[in-house]
Amino acid sequence: MKVFYPRFKKKELVEKLTQAFREISRQVRISDAMLFGSYAKATNTAFSDIDILVVTEDNKDEVYSVCWDIIGIPETELHIYTGEEIKIMKGTDNLFLKEVERNGVKLLIPPR
Question: What is the pTM of this model?
Answer without folding.
Answer: 0.90
